[in-house]
Design a protein that fits this description.
The protein is of the alpha/beta class. The chain is 40% helix and 12% strand. Strand 3 and strand 4 form a beta hairpin. It is elongated and about 90 Å long.
């Protein structure tokens, strides 16, 4: 019988109606069925994992199968946790996988500093929550799914971008954002495409090892291997006591005053003068394919070192390529193994003719990651306390361990170059930017002294028609660019090392990075140094190769006069205006920073003689 309106039908054994579900839950469940929610979340997490794996394969270090498996397993657990553990509603928005990637990356990269990054993370989470609530009100399932996929893609690429920005930060005046954008575009592009040169001249390979002492280089197997095939200088000379100006001289053929790359007042730096031609630009203009694989934070596009390169790879990105597994293997991002892998793949991609490759290793620079004991991983060796003879010996042994490690990797690189015919028909240069003091004169490090352990470097040159021999005269890093240009048939100004260096040629160096300004000059026998105290010290390298006993030298001696006359680089842009204002206000004396046409020292005096029996290395100076 039909029930009239208002009547009640008693149905036996019917389950009681559960009316405890809230109206919001009913609305949410009817709008977003559970199956649709699971699909959206699973898709968003899957896209995140796929984009991460794609970026990992674009990298230059191999990712092992177990690392991929662990990464996918971990992301799967996170997906299941979000589906099962969080309540129904906006906390299960497909926005969250992409936000997870960004927040996790910001947490360990800290590109804005600890407190700044904390604020950015908090802001991102609040913004994401608001967007998730707004997305909750969108009824169209396809829109929800598209938003989730887009956020996963943006989140993962954004996470990688944060890593690149952190790795590209090179100090005051750096253009980290531009560098990071270029690196990100490079990672998304096809890796190491086959290149084609348009010049039939010999290939050119330049190998530089950061912080490599001349007396350590001469003991390297790779040095002996190359020296047996070309010209070698066990004790050539750099143009400065630190990387930026020294490598700028190698790439330009100019002294520091000519190319301008140097330190500035206040701790900032300036790069190569944009008006100065650099070696890769000249080679590229002639049809060369130009590549660089570098591992020093001074050798960046911000300082002009990327000019003229078709491919500029700087291995400075910090660990954390994958979200959960971290870096793909145990090798440091700037390890000689990684650097050599990149360089070998570059050689395999480049033509046998008309190619230029510059490879720079940094492992010998502190921290010495392949050493043991108390020096393992030390960023610097402080001078604030005395070190025992045993500690000094251990530190020196650690340094040599790093040299041996790099030596083995350079051997791998030379094997690849020889297989391609570069050692037989190409131009090969092997040298360093500067050396390293290990208590030779009472201190450690570089960028603070112009003694031989810091400013002298080893140098080897292979070139068509060059016979094996010890090079004559005193070679300089300035000679490398003109020698390469001349060897490939291009116009060059300067000394061509294939002909040797005329005996008696005086070479000079200028500038320190952290302790005042020094200048120096030397020939085959004499070295003269104008110290930060404006006193000249001279050494007879024939009788005192370690430079422990300064000798009297007249200020008008040809080597002393050359050391005193070394010009300083001019400050570029607004830095020069600021210094001028400081001089006018009396805060600086003109030239105190080593800039301008005048030297730091208006008057140079002879050094005070040491007490009888006293040596510089025994007690400092």
């Amino acid at each position: 019988m039909a029930c009239e309106p208002g009547c009640v039908v008693d149905t036996p054994n019917a389950p009681p109606l559960d009316v405890s579900v809230s109206a919001a839950q009913l609305e949410s469940s009817s709008r977003f069925p559970e199956g649709a929610r699971i699909r959206d979340l699973a898709t968003a997490w899957a896209v995140l994992a796929a984009v991460e794996c794609f970026l990992a394969t674009r990298g230059y270090l191999p990712v092992l199968a177990w690392q991929y498996a662990f990464e996918l397993f971990g992301l799967g657990i996170l997906c299941i946790s979000q589906i099962r553990l969080l309540p129904v509603g906006w906390p299960q928005s497909p926005l969250w996988p992409g936000m997870f990637a960004l927040v996790m990356t910001l947490g360990w990269a800290q590109p804005f500093g600890v407190y700044g990054t904390t604020g950015v993370i908090a802001g991102l989470v609040v913004a994401a929550a608001g967007l998730a609530m707004a997305l909750e009100r969108v009824a169209n399932a396809r829109i929800r799914l598209a938003v989730g996929i887009l956020c996963s893609v943006i989140g993962m690429i954004g996470a990688r971008y944060v890593v690149l920005v952190e790795g590209a930060s090179v100090g005051p005046g750096s253009n980290a954002w531009r560098i990071a954008l270029g690196d990100l575009a490079e990672e998304l592009a096809p890796e190491f495409p086959r290149s084609q040169s348009f010049h039939d001249a010999p290939p050119v390979l330049v190998i530089t090892v950061d912080t490599l002492r001349w007396d350590s280089m001469r003991e390297m197997t790779s040095f002996s291997r190359l020296a047996a095939r070309g010209l070698s200088w066990q004790r050539a000379m750099s143009t400065s006591s630190w990387t930026l100006p020294a490598m700028a001289s190698m790439q330009t053929g100019l002294p520091v005053s000519g190319h301008g790359a140097s330190a500035r007042p206040g701790g900032s730096t300036q790069g190569i003068d944009p008006e100065v031609a650099v070696l890769p630009e000249q080679l590229h203009a002639a049809g060369y394919e130009t590549w660089a694989v570098l591992t020093n934070a001074w050798l960046t596009g911000a300082h002009g070192f990327d000019r003229g390169f078709d491919h500029f790879e700087q291995s400075l990105h910090p660990p954390g390529r994958m979200l959960l597994t971290g870096f793909p293997n145990k090798d440091s991002h700037d390890s000689a193994v990684h650097t050599t892998d990149l360089a070998i793949r570059a050689i395999e991609s480049l033509d046998a003719r008309g190619s230029y490759l510059w490879v720079h290793y940094i492992d010998v620079h502190m921290p010495w990651e392949h050493a043991g004991g108390w020096v393992a991983g030390a960023i610097t060796l402080p001078d604030s306390r005395p070190y025992s003879a045993a500690e000094r010996s251990e530190a020196r042994a650690a340094y040599e361990q790093e040299v041996d490690f790099v030596d083995a990797q350079i051997g791998r690189l030379l094997d690849a170059a020889e297989a391609k015919g570069w050692l037989d028909q190409g131009v090969v240069v092997f040298t360093s930017d500067h050396g390293e003091e290990l208590w030779d004169h009472g201190s450690t490090g570089h960028g603070h002294s112009h003694h031989g352990e810091v400013v002298d470097v080893g140098l080897v040159l292979l070139a068509p028609g060059v016979e094996p021999a010890a090079g004559s005269g005193t070679a300089s890093l300035r000679d490398i660019a003109p020698t390469i240009l001349a060897a490939v048939g291009l116009a060059a100004e300067g000394i061509d090392l294939r002909d040797g260096v005329p005996l008696g040629t005086i070479r000079s160096a200028w500038g320190n990075n952290r302790v005042g300004v020094e200048s120096s000059a030397r020939d085959e026998r004499w070295r003269a140094i104008v110290g930060t105290d404006c006193r000249l010290r001279a050494y007879d390298l024939e009788t005192d190769p370690l430079e422990l006993q300064p000798v009297a030298m007249p200020l008008d001696h040809r080597v002393a006069a050359a050391a005193i006359a070394v010009p300083a680089p001019r400050l570029a842009g607004k830095a020069a205006e600021v210094v001028g204002q400081l001089v006018a206000l009396g805060y600086l004396v003109e030239g105190d920073d080593g800039s301008g046409e005048r030297k730091t020292c208006d008057r140079v005096l002879p050094a005070q003689p040491l007490p009888p029996g006293r040596r510089e290395g025994a007690g400092g100076r």
